[in-house]
Amino acid sequence: MPMRYGFFSPSATATAPGVLLPTVCGEIMIPVSARQGRLHHRPPVQAYPVPGPGPPVNLSLPFMSEPLPYRIACLCDLRDAEGRILLIHRERPPNKGLCSPIGGKLDMHTGESPAQCAQREIMEEAGIEVPIERLHLGGLIAEAAFEGTCHWLLFYYRVLGPVEVPEKTIPEGRLAWHHPDELETLPVPESDRRIIWPMIRKHDGGSARPGFFAVHIDCRGDEMTWSVEESFPPAS
Question: What number does CATH give the domain 70-232?
């Protein structure tokens, strides 16, 4: 194998005289001119490490950590003719032991839209079919590092008009109707109590079409922080 620009190979020593110099990355051959008796000036080249046996080298730095997964889900706000809210007293994570609206993660395999996800979750958990025309996108909620396990992007849908759903037990927990005033005393997630439900109340249109809000909640650190990124009032 011929020698090119100082790259060293065992076969090169027999055909190209020179000086073998050790480097931190291995060894390179610097050819010597037989006619002039001195080192030739060559363009600078990169020396590559000599391969050898051994385990793979872990190049990660101590301060680097795996990124948290990002999950996409919907929240479905159903109200009855009395204005009560349908909540699940959850028996499963996330929010086990707390009360939250119907909802769930988007089906990534089928590529369903957030509204289709809301339709499916309402059918699975409440047992009623709601047409997409009655689903109003009332909010986008981004939660960073929720419980230190993942990030959430939540599509909040308000079902327009009253629905009738009997209270019952489902695999996720107990479905029950609650007056909005009860949210102050019910066990709900802290981010729901301090941020999400107040935002929903602020943009509730009553008999009119609700408004819209987008909020970012940062759960990292000792103190939860949030910022409202967009807000539209209810229709007049």
Answer: 3.90.79.10
